Amino acid sequence: MLNKKIGIVGVGNVGSSLAYSIATNSLCDEVLLKDIRDDFIQALSLDITQASINTNSKTKVKACIKNEDFNSCDIVVITAGIARKPNMSREDLLFTNAKIMNSILDDILPINPNAIFIIVSNPLDAMVYSALQKSKLSRNRVFGMAGALDSARFKYYISQKLNFDYTKIDAIVIGSHSNSMLPLIKRVKVDDKNLVDILNQKELDEILENTKNGGAKIVELLKTGSAYFAPAFNTYLMCKAILNDEKEIFSCSVKLEGEYGYKDISIGVPVILGKNGIDKILELTLDNEEKDLFEKSIQTVKSSINILNK
Ligand SMILES: NC(=O)C1=CN([C@@H]2O[C@H](COP(=O)(O)OP(=O)(O)OC[C@H]3O[C@@H](n4cnc5c(N)ncnc54)[C@H](O)[C@@H]3O)[C@@H](O)[C@H]2O)C=CC1
Ligand SMILES: O=C([O-])CC(=O)C(=O)O
């Protein structure tokens, strides 16, 4: 897909892995890197370009010299901010990352109010809400990556438990990107069979716990930060779906305006992604137990938004 440009703001672990995936897969014409570390992004633009040379990639990787370079970006991914360390929750990042997000939007929005903004910084759902409030852009152009990652982890833990090919597993996580996320276990299909008919309750509970703690487990092991390859690759897939107008289904954090019975809140639900960003929000029919868990998820996001708005 040429004549398309993606800007990445915050080129640390997630941002640089995303730039690498985009460039080595020749997803677009240009990737623009912006960070507060100028020499670092110069180095990365050289390194990632040199990595993609032998893939015959058409993607140019450039370090942003002036904010005006963002004026022609079709997509801007915001991965700037601090990552959590062991014994921290994502919510502990709230104030620092909201401040960083606001300063980035102050820089980019006047130059390019027409891009699609994909938010990655944590706590994800509150950051999406905050970016929407600040930008006043429509919700189909400001949304967040998390549900795709959580759904990949859900599939991973199901496949581990069953020792079964994960390509034959259909599973999705909705709700907040927090401990109160909602892996929809009753809907999981394994080769067209219901997972709940295959495993006992203890085994199902283990999968749920592992999925919810998927990010924290990596944080505990890494000690210096959080996961980046899987977050970056899922963001890459979202960019690809948009630039290629794939109309693919992803679980994304999006502002609800009545869907699922909620308004004025950003949270993970399945959506269709295409060239205009969010093409459609899909409304699953939740049973009473799922509705209660979704409400808990909503409350987690609301409490972060309320803290920010105080
Ligand atoms: N939504 C999700 O599923 C996931 C979210 N995350 C979040 O993504 C964020 C980034 O994570 P990592 O890449 O691992 O962190 P990192 O620390 O490796 O990179 C963050 C980068 O942001 C840059 N930065 C800080 N302030 C900036 C500003 N004002 N303008 C431009 N750049 C700025 C830093 O210099 C650094 O290069 C964190 O908030 C993390 O919690 C990480 C993984 C998954
Ligand atoms: O765990 C973290 O802090 C980073 C993240 O959101 C994830 O990997 O799911």
UniProtKB/TrEMBL annotation:
Entry keyword NAD: yes
Coiled-coil annotated residue ranges, if any: none
Binding site for substrate: 84, 90, 122, 153
Stored CDD domains: LDH-like_MDH (cd01339)
Residue ranges constituting the Lactate/malate dehydrogenase N-terminal domain according to the UniProt record: 5-144
Domain Lactate/malate dehydrogenase C-terminal, residue spans: 149-306
Keywords: NAD, Oxidoreductase, Tricarboxylic acid cycle
Family stated for the protein in its record: Belongs to the LDH/MDH superfamily.
Protein name: Malate dehydrogenase
